[in-house]
Amino acid sequence: MKAKILQVLRQNRQGYVSGQELCRQLGVSRTAIWKYIKQLKDAGYMIEGVQNKGYCLIAAPDILSESEIVSQLHTKWLGNSVKYFEELDSTNTEAKRIAETSDWTQWHGMVVVTDKQTAGRGRRGRDWDSPQGSGLFFSILLKPEIAPSNAAMVTLVKAMAAVKGIAEVTGLQPQIKWPNDIVLNGKKIVGILTEMSAQVDYVNHIVVGTGINVHQTEFPDEIAQTATSLDLEVGKEGRNLQIFRAELLAAVLKYFENYYEIYLQSQDLSALMEEYNHLLANRGRGVRVLDPLGEYQGVALGIDKRGELLVEREYEIVKVSSGEVSVRGIYGYID
Ligand code: BTN
Q: In terms of residue numbers, what domain contains 34?
């Protein structure tokens, strides 16, 4: 109900919505509306109530409550169920717990969000630092009818959605470091961890977890040189933009829903690879391929329809698959 009130107030951002109109749209009494408005004010929303005019949303806090998130969503099915927690070990772990203990018809498209992770997980067994209120930590739970061998591409789809959502909300222009890190000015701003439960020919569930650095002003020593946040990057441009994580989440989900539907049609990236390559930071650059069988260098040309990176070596073009190797710039993370 609070999500719906926020939605109606947001649609009328410049003006007032009468109590009567709110009652009509929500199908509840004026007393109920008054009670919900009071709860929203208590949660930090600035809502002006003027007699004979109604209510106007003046300002909203940067919170990730279920009502705040749902009131901003522009999706058809993704996020039909949003589970918000003030604190979790990890949104990926929680999403997996949900998938393993309930019926898939209830969780397909579910989004699990938290304000703080106590055991946030990164790729290759690393931790993902997730202090309270600093970032956007969320996981999407999916049950696609695809072959397990096609599932890795969902991560690249998610990377595209993150870039587009961030660009829309902040005006920044991040890029993708293949396969799925998002970078700004050579530093990492988003990490994606996709996990799957499958049988040989059947996907039980896929959890796509995303961490976006939003408000951090400092990072742990190990990543201090290679990580940045949206606030820091907006600040470098001399802009004073307040970033609302729920708005950012809604934008990323909107793009993900669209790209994911396109991906599902062919179960590959044939219809998306041109756009992906356009967003690729490594494209046309020298890369070091850290292959366990032997490191080599080449020039990254872009991805193919399976999401493999095409690397031009002296006399051949090699297809690099993300599960096997990492790719770095010749001199550092990107360059
Ligand atoms: C990486 O190593 O780059 C991937 C980081 C993924 C972090 C996100 S935060 C939300 C979700 N929950 C986790 O525990 N990890 C992912």
A: 2-59
Range 32-46 average pLDDT: 91
Domain boundary among 42, 59, 76: 59
Residues 109 and 161 in one domain: yes
pLDDT at 329 over 80: no
- Could you tell me which of 285, 276, 274 has the C-alpha nearest to residue 328? 285
Q: Which residues, in sequence order, are bridge partners of residue 193?
A: 209
Q: What is the pLDDT of residues 101-159, one digit of tens each?
A: 999 989 999 999 999 999 999 998 899 999 999 999 999 999 999 999 999 999 999 99
Distance 234 CA to ligand 1 centre (A): 23
As for how many domains the chain has, the answer is 3
In a domain, 175, yes or no: yes
Q: Give the rounded distance of the alpha carbon of 187 from its chain centre.
A: 17
Asked whether 191 lines ligand 1 (CB < 6 A), one says yes
Q: What's the pLDDT at 330?
A: 59
Distance 211 CA to ligand 1 centre (A): 5
pLDDT, residue 328, reads 77
Substitution site in 128, 178, 189 for ligand 1 pocket (most atoms within 8 Å of beta carbon): 128
- Contact residues for 29 (Cβ-Cβ < 8 A; gap 6+): 23
The CATH code of the domain that includes 323 is 2.30.30.100
Q: Which of 138, 193, 213, 228 to mutate to test the pocket of ligand 1 (most atoms within 8 A of CB)?
A: 193
CB-based contacts of 51, cutoff 8 Å, min separation 6: none
Confidence grade of residue 335 (pLDDT, cut at 50, 70, 90): low
Distance (angstroms) between ligand 1 centre and the Cα of 197 equals 17
User: Residue 172 has what pLDDT?
Assistant: 97
Render pLDDT for 70-82 as a digit per residue (tens, 0 to 9): 999 999 999 999 9
Atom of ligand 1 nearest to the CA of 124: 2
Q: Is residue 334 part of a domain?
A: no
Distance of CA 182 to the CA centre of its chain: 11
Residue 100 has pLDDT above 80, yes or no: yes
